[in-house]
Amino acid sequence: MKNSAVTLSKATVEDAAVIHAMQHAAFLPLLEKYQDYETNPANETMERLLERMNQEFVDYYIIRNAGNAVGSIRVKKTDEHHYWLSQLCVVPQSQGQGIAQQAFALIEEIYADAKTWGLATVVQEERNCYLYEKLGYRRTNETREINDKMTLCFYEKRGGTL
After folding, report:
1. What value does the mean pLDDT of the chain take?
2. Which is it for the CA torsion 58, 124, 144, 45, positive or negative?
3. Helix (H, G, I), strand (E, B) or coil at 101
4. Residue 145 pairs with which residues in a beta bridge?
5. How far is Cα 108 from Cα 126, in angstroms, rounded to an integer?
6. CA 61, 29, 105, 161 torsion-angle sign
7. What span, in angstroms and rounded, lies between the C-alpha atoms of 147 and 159?
8. What is the three-class DSSP state of 93?
9. What's the pTM value of the predicted model, to 2 decimals?
10. pLDDT tens digit string along 34-78?
11. Extended strands (E) in the chain
12. What whole-number distance in Å separates Cα of residue 60 and Cα of residue 65?
């Protein structure tokens, strides 16, 4: 892995088309594999993305590597000092380079007041589960079956930064 310069920039509605394209590229293989048309971000309309971006308790960030947009992440404030991460994506050609790990570290610095973090992922995607556990997230007992191919599991992390 080369020494990469991963940064986050807060997204605005002007970035919606870029985020939409990256989400589609990153999540399309999972949509094809699991056929979860209701929950997969690759199937999210531009209108729905804009609705989410305009929620006052939500922030979107573009993940950049050496200045190039390579992914995005959505941070939702669920309560005072409690945050939910979703729609984390890194485009396929940039995966496996440690970018997501660095993005998590940066998010946790930005939201240093966090007492808990939550997220959900596909149980069947062991690489994702491994990544989150490596970053200090612990699986809760909660799961949600989406269809006969796919189940979501939920993770929580307590306390501050990595």
Report:
1. 94
2. positive
3. helix
4. 151
5. 23
6. positive
7. 33
8. helix
9. 0.92
10. 999 999 999 999 999 999 999 999 999 999 999 999 999 999 999
11. 6-10, 58-65, 68-79, 82-90, 116-122, 138-147, 150-158
12. 16
**DSSP reduced 3-state for 133:** helix
Residue 7 confidence class, pLDDT cut points 50, 70, 90: very high
Which one-letter DSSP state was computed for residue 139?
A: E
What is the number of alpha carbons within 13 Å of residue 39 lying toward its C-beta? 15
| Closest by Cα among 126, 124, 80, 128 to 104 | 128
**pLDDT tens for each residue of 65-124:** 999 999 999 999 999 999 999 999 999 999 999 999 999 999 999 999 999 999 999 999
Beta bridge partners of 58: 76
Residue with tokens 């293989």: 29
Residue 20, Cβ neighbours under 10 Å: how many? 19
Contact 112, 130 (CB under 8 A): no
120: number of Cβ within 10 Å:
18
Dihedral (CA of 44, 48, 53, 56) sign: negative
Which tokens belong to 141?
Answer: 């007992």
